């Protein structure tokens, strides 16, 4: 991709091509692509009045709502860059990301006052934004595929979040790869019940304007509402994580209509039992593999292989290359486990303000995912572990090192180790094994209360166990696999 490669402005082009087609349905409101463009332009002009300029970073702390859609596309029309903020994080976590990204304005809403009331810097509630005067702008006819569209933070194994830079080209090629795999139907309606601040949600928005596809937006996941959309409103696709799929299956008492094409399942591998339940109930579910750094899915199990390759994430999407490297840093043989590497035009150009991490993680276009898997003899990917230490709980990524850092900041804690254990509802939940300082009387309840003030609730350990010593190697590094083995043994014996 050359530095000068451009395409028509995505939203402007879509509004021109199919102005009267329904773009979004939210609750009882329908918005056409022309109306979406007009509302986004109004937001862009209101942001301009506030002094926001091209390439400025605008923080977005909002819930799934049609207003959020208008704001996100308004930021795009202005040529600014959206910094997505997870509304499940604490004030201190949000504050860190705002400062790290050099965000000049935070757009939020009253619902999140407990979070933003403790923040510094310019803050604009969305209803106040919509009252601003408009300053005329010229919407660019073209956009560069190399221009940054969005920034999403993802934690690293050190526990320090990194801002992933996502270009328009990343989103364009992600949408293209998905279309070449799943196809595009005039009747498609994609349910978005996953958070828009996640790549799983935002990628659906980008596909909407690229495909000219209707998106049915939900504030959150409600299995009864989703079934109603599928049965009565002809919804054909939905993006889910395992917990959502389990709840959906439990509510089903009849086969889904033929208009429903597939459930795209991400956020970690599905259990064989869950996949078999989908087969029994005739729910077409296709596992996917992807991450923030790849602008959503990069590997998907095609429909014709869903039964023959049960448990596989599939093969790479058309624009993507995939390889497995073993411990000797050479390409692994079929069925040989190793680290998963990804290359393609949907791979991030790097991490905000972190050139050394970018150079370490992306070499010659190949992204080192840190995930472990293997390819079978037919080239299908089987993901065995997500970044080995990573805990995936209800589709949320949780890194043990981040929690350990918080626990160890307590004055009565000597050291802490965090692992993920299996959970029927959430897939995994974090538990902590803690060594107290000698002579202290710290309780589990006190440590949980301490954590609640510093971590998002889903990151707070569900169980805390006190022991005398953590397993460490000669370099004094925590040997996490021994901790996991110890935990399994104690649970079996207990």
From TrEMBL:
One of its GO terms (biological process) is menaquinone biosynthetic process. Its EC number is 6.2.1.26. Keywords: ATP-binding, Ligase, Menaquinone biosynthesis, Nucleotide-binding. Residues 12-352 form the AMP-dependent synthetase/ligase domain. PROSITE patterns: AMP_BINDING. The keyword Iron-sulfur does not apply. It catalyses: 2-succinylbenzoate + ATP + CoA = 2-succinylbenzoyl-CoA + AMP + diphosphate. The keyword ATP-binding applies. InterPro entries: AMP-bd_C (IPR025110), AMP-bd_C_sf (IPR045851), AMP-binding_CS (IPR020845), AMP-dep_synth/lig_dom (IPR000873), ANL_N_sf (IPR042099), ATP-dep_AMP-bd_enzyme (IPR050237), MenE (IPR010192). NCBIfam families: menE (TIGR01923), PRK03640.1 (NF002966). This is 2-succinylbenzoate--CoA ligase. It comes from Pseudoneobacillus rhizosphaerae.
């Amino acid at each position: 991709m050359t530095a000068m490669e451009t395409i028509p402005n995505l939203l402007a082009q879509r509004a021109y091509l199919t102005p009267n087609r329904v773009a979004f349905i939210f609750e009882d409101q329908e918005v056409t692509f022309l109306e979406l463009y007009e509302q986004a332009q109004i937001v862009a002009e209101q942001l301009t009045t506030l002094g926001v300029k091209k390439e400025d970073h605008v923080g977005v702390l909002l819930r799934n709502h049609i207003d959020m859609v208008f704001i996100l596309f308004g930021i795009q029309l202005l040529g600014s860059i959206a910094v997505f903020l997870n509304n499940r994080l604490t004030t201190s976590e949000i504050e860190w990301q705002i400062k790290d990204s050099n965000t000049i304005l935070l757009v939020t809403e009253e619902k999140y006052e407990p979070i933003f009331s403790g923040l510094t810097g310019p803050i604009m509630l969305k209803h106040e934004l919509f009252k601003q005067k408009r300053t005329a702008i010229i919407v660019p006819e073209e956009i560069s595929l190399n221009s940054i569209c969005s920034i999403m933070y993802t934690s690293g194994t050190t526990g320090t979040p990194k801002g992933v830079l996502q270009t328009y080209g990343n989103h364009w090629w992600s949408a293209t790869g998905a279309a070449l795999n799943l196809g595009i139907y005039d009747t498609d309606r994609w349910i978005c019940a996953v958070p828009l601040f996640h790549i799983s949600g935002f990628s659906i928005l980008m596909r909407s304007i690229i495909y000219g596809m209707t998106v049915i937006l939900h504030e959150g996941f409600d299995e009864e509402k989703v079934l109603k959309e599928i049965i009565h409103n002809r919804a054909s696709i939905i993006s889910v994580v395992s917990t959502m799929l389990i709840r959906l299956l439990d509510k089903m008492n009849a086969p889904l209509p033929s208009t429903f094409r597939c459930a795209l399942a991400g956020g970690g591998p599905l259990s064989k039992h869950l996949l078999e339940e989908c087969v029994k109930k005739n729910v077409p579910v296709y596992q996917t593999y992807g991450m923030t750094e790849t602008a959503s899915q990069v590997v998907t199990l095609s429909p014709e292989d869903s039964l023959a390759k049960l448990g596989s994430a599939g093969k790479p999407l058309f624009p993507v290359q995939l390889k497995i490297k073993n411990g000797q840093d050479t390409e692994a043989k079929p069925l040989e486990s190793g680290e998963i590497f990804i290359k393609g035009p949907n791979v991030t150009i790097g991490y905000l303000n972190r050139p050394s991490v970018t150079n370490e993680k992306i070499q010659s276009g190949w992204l080192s995912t840190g995930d472990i898997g293997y390819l079978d003899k037919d080239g299908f990917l089987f993901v065995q572990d997500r970044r080995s230490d990573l805990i995936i709980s209800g589709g949320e990524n949780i890194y043990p090192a981040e929690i350990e850092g918080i626990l160890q900041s307590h004055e009565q804690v000597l050291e802490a180790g965090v692992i993920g254990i299996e959970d029927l509802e959430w897939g995994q939940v974090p538990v902590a094994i803690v060594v107290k300082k000698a002579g202290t009387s710290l309780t589990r309840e006190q440590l949980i209360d301490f954590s609640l003030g510093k971590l998002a609730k889903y990151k707070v350990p569900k169980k805390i166990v006190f022991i005398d010593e953590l397993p460490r190697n000669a370099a004094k590094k925590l040997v996490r696999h021994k901790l996991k083995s110890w935990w399994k043994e104690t649970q079996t014996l207990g």
